[in-house]
Amino acid sequence: MTQGPQVPAMPLSFRKAGETIMVTRVRGDEDLKHHLANIGFVEGSEVHVVSSSPSNIIVTVKGARFGLDTKVAQRVMTV
C-alpha cells in the first residue's frame, strides 16, 4: 500500500490566523507537556488559530480559547 506525500510537522508558532490544524506532538520538559495536555494540547487534537503575532498566538482548542507565548507555541508540533 502506498501513502501520499508526508506533510512535515510545523510548530504552532508558525501557523497563521484562520488555519485549523492537528497537534502531532508536544516537546519540552514534563511540566510543560503536562500543563499543555491539561488544557487540550494532546496528539490528535484539533486547533484553530484565531490570531497570530510575533509575540503570541491565540487559538481555540476543545471549545476553549487560549493565548500562548510564541516560545511555548514553538513546542507544539502540528500538521
UniProtKB/TrEMBL annotation:
Gene3D superfamilies: 2.30.30.90. This is FeoA family protein. Keywords: Iron. Residues 10-79 form the Ferrous iron transporter FeoA-like domain. The keyword ATP-binding does not apply. InterPro entries: Fe-transptr_FeoA-like, FeoA-like, FeoA_core_dom, Transcriptional_repressor_C. It holds the Pfam family FeoA. SMART domains: FeoA. GO terms for molecular function: transition metal ion binding.
